[in-house]
Structures are given as structure tokens and as C-alpha cells.
Amino acid sequence: MTSQELQREVEALGPWFYPFDFGGIRTESIVPPQVVEIFETRRRMVEGLVAAHFSERLAEVRCLDVGCHEGLYSFAMARLGMGRITGLDVREVNLTKARFAAEQLGHAGIEFRQGNVETLDASSLGTFDLTLLLGVLYHLENPMRALRNMRSVTSELCIVETQVIDEIEGEAEWGAREWTRPYRGVLALIDETGEFNADNTETGHSPLVTCPSPKALAFMLEQAGFARVEFVDPPVQAYEQHARGKRVVCAAYC
């Protein structure tokens, strides 16, 4: 493919969510410039965690990138040395761009499949040493179901990156005035109707989505069956939301 042909193909596939460089032909991200740093911070946090945990075993790791979108983090795992990577996304339009980007970047061995995290079936997918759920959870209607499904396909480590809401502490009456239960984290209901109806490729399969607080996220991961949950500290010069704790990266170990 000549550079002119490549340029035409990139433009035909647009708009693009992620900024890619295909040998001098660049995609222009639809994300505002002041927000693009989120991609780099997320990558640094995930790569550091993965490299530290798997170390010399990286080449043997089987990875599932759920909500892979255009494949940015699947490619990052390939650059770390993983040879068995599957990207899963609910939208075929995203997967078309992911397959194109994989070919241009030399990652043709990555498998991209259509699928929904809220209906994952371990019997058809199998299990993976590493699973990624990056920038996905807060676009879902049923996050608890999604996390249970993630656990069913994870044999070692699941990494979740998500927007979070502020904690709300308190107690709820539970059957009678004198019977109460403490809150253990909260979920906020968010209306994404506008984005959903506009075919925004970031949204899930429903305009009703939920966003957890950090305590809710940890509790839900534990209830999903993960044995240990740890939050990862943001790096120096992190994207401002990660730095302020409005977005978190969480490691869930089996």
C-alpha cells in the first residue's frame, strides 16, 4: 500500500478514537487534546503492573483485552512480548479499525472478536492469565455481572481501569427503623442517552450506565470471586483524573 493509499484508508475508516502512527501516517483522535494524556497514563500504569507481576513469563501469558476498542492496549501487551492476545469489543466498527491498525503496526497475530463483557461465556472463550477491562466498567448497565464474567475467564490477574465517584458514607434502614446496614461503597446511575443515540463508540450496549466508588469497586471484585484486590498508585505526572483519584487502576488477583 502506498502512502497515498494508506492515507485514504485511514481517512475512510475515521473518525479515530486513538492516536496511531502508521509510519508517518497519523490518525487524529477525536478526544480533546487536554484529555489524550489519559491514554498514556493508563498504559504506563498497566504495563508496569503487568511487567512486575509476570516478569520473565510474559511470552507465555495469554491475554484477553475486553472492550479493546481500536486495539491500543492489545498492541501495548504485544510490545511487552505477549504472543497470545485476544481483543474483544461489542462494536464491529471498532474491531475493523483494530484489525487494520494491527496489520499496519505489525501485530497481525492478535485475534479480534466481537463480544459483550456482560454476556461473556468462559466455555467458549476459555481462560486467560491476564484480562484487561480498561475504560469500560463505567459504561455498563450491569457492572456486577460483568465482573463475575471477568472472573470466570481470568486465571491469574484482572486489571480494571475506571472512572469512580466520591464515596458516600452512611447507614440504611433495613426492614425496621432500629435495623440498619452500613453502606459499603456506592454506585451512581449515569444517563448516557445522548452519547448512545449518537452512536458514540465509547458507550456500552445501553444508555443506562453505572459508575462505582472505589470501595464499591473493591467490594464488587471480591464478591465476584477475586482473592485479593489492590489499587495501583498513579505515576509521576499522571493524567489529572488519575492523580486526583477520580480514575483508578485496580489489580484483582485470583
User: What oligomeric state do these chains adopt?
Assistant: single chain
Low-confidence stretches: none
Shape category: globular
> Major β-sheet, in short?
7 strands, mixed
Task: Using the CA coordinates, give the radius of gyration.
Answer: 19 Å
Number of strands: 13
Give the strand content: 25-35%
Average pLDDT, to the nearest integer? Answer: 94
Q: Report helical residue fraction.
A: 25-40%
Strand order of the largest sheet: 5-4-3-6-7-13-12
Order of helices and strands: HEEHEHEHEHEHEEEEHEHEHE
Query: What structural class do the secondary elements suggest?
Result: alpha/beta
Total count of helical runs of at least 4 residues = 9
What gap, in angstroms, lies between the N and C termini? 45 Å
